[in-house]
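Hey all, quick one. A colleague (J.T.) asked me to put the flavin-adenine dinucleotide job into the tracker so the inputs and the structure tokens live in one place instead of scattered across chat threads. No bug as far as I know, just bookkeeping. Sequence used:
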Amino acid sequence: MSAARDRSRFDIVVVGAGMVGAAAAALLSRAGFSVAVIEGREPAPFDPARPVGLRVSAFSPGSSDILAEAGAWRQVERQRHCAYRRMVVEDRDEASLLTFDAPEFGLERLGTIVENDLVQWSLWQSLLAMGGVEILCPERVAGLTSDDSGTRVRLDSGRDIDCRLLVGADGANSEIRQMLGISQEYWDYGQQGVVGVVETETPNPGVAWQRFMDGGPLAFLPLEDGTSSIVWSRPEAEAARLLELGDDEFIAELEGAAAGGAGHWPGRILSCGPRAAFPLTMRLSERYTARQAVLVGDAAHVVHPLAGQGVNLGLLDVAGLVESLVLARREGESPFAAKILQKFDRWRRSEAEVMARGIHGLRGLFTPGELGPLRRLGIGLVARSWTAREAFIRRATGRNRNAPALARGSALTDLLHP
Ligand SMILES: Cc1cc2nc3c(=O)[nH]c(=O)nc-3n(C[C@H](O)[C@H](O)[C@H](O)COP(=O)(O)OP(=O)(O)OC[C@H]3O[C@@H](n4cnc5c(N)ncnc54)[C@H](O)[C@@H]3O)c2cc1C
């Protein structure tokens, strides 16, 4: 940005610099738009000497490609991360088993487990290094007014900034969504995801392992040092009880829930670190756009973590938004015209809805009740059908036909200069 630039007027203002908002700001700036980002809290520097954080995510290959284009993935790969090539899904009641191996689908890996803090910090560093993005932090939005030419953002500090497009990336409890008057379908699962890092006697062999049980799934995700990050979905009262247990009692319950795994893994658990629990909900916004504004990431949709898709969906929104705006500009159209934003809305909302409802339905199969035989039949059918497994993997890795070009390996420069 030149020194003479008007610092109160931008093409795009992004609210929220979590993993999704920061990626949006970086990519939109790289695509040639003038961008400001408003964030309430500066991310803490990532400290590799610190134990692994409680919040980790499985990043699909599509997401790592998007983060590479946003200038963050190289930094992530220099720090703690664990690529995995195998995913195992088990059913508690039977030896029914689904296994996905990256090579059988022509993939080098199925995903990479990374701490959320590291990704957010790497993106923040990328924004600072790019220099062209105006970072307003700590700052919050006090109010919005929009007309057909753009949106005026009133900041808590009293300053006003104008933009052609406002991007709401301020997470599940998005104030921007509320200010825009966008309603949501909301489903409280009455469950919490208990998370923590555990050490198993036999180190995690680099496998993302998940077991479906009545009451909620249990996942062990591989970390670089052979330990595992767990997500154990339990009814709320159960989750609260698990948090209260001493380490030895917790380990005993966890071992019991995970006992009898394929290849006898996870087996014995030696230790566990601090634990925390997060409420599990599904939220689907009735629309992703309002006048001169769009929602992305958890501000637009929240899904149950059993398929590890929340932030991946958010990064696909970002890639889809960048693609929509850049292609419109290439065609000589205004990238901020209502019809361009509505097309983005239809595209990304239908994709997120397929995923959210798919996960919702899958979860329904695992609530206590009479569905055990149906579940076993379903897993058995999928296990025998390569086509079904391939379709699942394409979507989970962000490489399906409807995915944005940046998730399917295109570089941003390919979009800008075909
Ligand atoms: C237990 C659990 C496990 C999960 N595992 C996975 C997984 O394996 N894979 C996966 O893809 N997803 C996973 N998810 C989902 C994933 O964590 C979320 O989808 C992701 O963190 C959402 O990112 P976001 O940037 O949209 O929102 P957030 O991370 O919520 O970021 C929002 C940002 O906006 C800022 N902000 C908020 N309000 C304002 C405001 N008014 N003004 C300015 N700034 C504001 C916040 O400070 C924050 O930085 C999991 C979720 C849970 C609960």
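Adding what we noticed when we looked at it: The chain has a mean pLDDT of 92. DSSP finds twelve helices and 20 strands in the chain.
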